[in-house]
Amino acid sequence: MAVFLLLLSQIAWWAIVFSRYVDTVEELKRTNAQLQSQLVGSSGVDLSFISREAFRQKVMFFSESVFFALIASLALWLLFRALKTEERSREGQRNFIEVLTHESKTPLTALKLRLESIKEKMADSSLTLDVQRALFEVRRLTSIVEKALELNRLEMYIRNTEPLNLAELAEGIIKSMEPVFQQRQVQFISSLKEPVMVEGDYLGLRNTIQSLIENAVYYNDAQVKQVRLTVKEQNGFALVSVEDNGPGISISEETLVFERFYRGKVGKKIPGTGLGLYLSQQIVRAHRGVIRIIRQNHGAHFEIQIPLMARAL
What we know:
By secondary structure, this protein is α+β, with helices and mostly antiparallel strands. Helices cover 61% and strands 15% of the residues. The chain has two domains: 1-39 and 48-158; 162-313, 2-Layer Sandwich (Heat Shock Protein 90), CATH 3.30.565. The chain has helices at residues 2-40, 48-121, 125-155, 166-176, 178-184, 202-218, 276-286, and strands spanning 161-165, 186-192, 197-201, 225-234, 237-244, 290-293, 301-307. The chain is elongated, with a radius of gyration of 35 Å.
């Protein structure tokens, strides 16, 4: 609509300028013809041809302007209709993904709880191993569903903010992932300085921190696996740090790991979607923060920096 109005105003401006130009030229021609007739001593000079020429020029210009405006209007209308069709298609895709992922979460959660209950009651080591593998696959599928939900929320620009204690949020993530730490034999070390308050989206920040911890656990191939999580305040920002002693990230991959669907050399050995770090970066940016890789000799070290919530005076 803005482009259409700008186009019409531009055509109207051209019409006014050209009309004034034609009127000026017509007046000059009339004056010139009258002076010439006085010089030669003739009278009763016919000046109608000057008016007819000016009229033809105006008609030609206005007809071309109207034709151009009609063509441009048709093009803009077709573009608008194409954009609306594309938007309806994208809306249908988003709705499909949202329904599919929401409906999948409930049976996945129930299945995970039942497998955990069976694992606690079983004594046969071989069967217990099978249950552990099934639990791992269920947790992985649950993580994929959550990433799909988060991606859909990002594309729809949905972000529900509320006061959050990042230390408390991180503690909840640690408790939920304790079975994973035990299964993968990971020494998990946490340093949570409470309270670390931010104004943020609970689901988004939870998925971000959990995704970094999962990467540090699943991609760690050290004999003695160690993962460290730190949450603290620093210079007016909330600082979340996840560090491991795994294979780390090469310098050539540091600029690529945050791209959608990118999976590095180490990541290709482990099943995944390549969405975790991409979503983490988008979520952190939506909170006016930054996520970066801290260069070190070994292992991977990710750091999130988000502005602290303004304290009431």
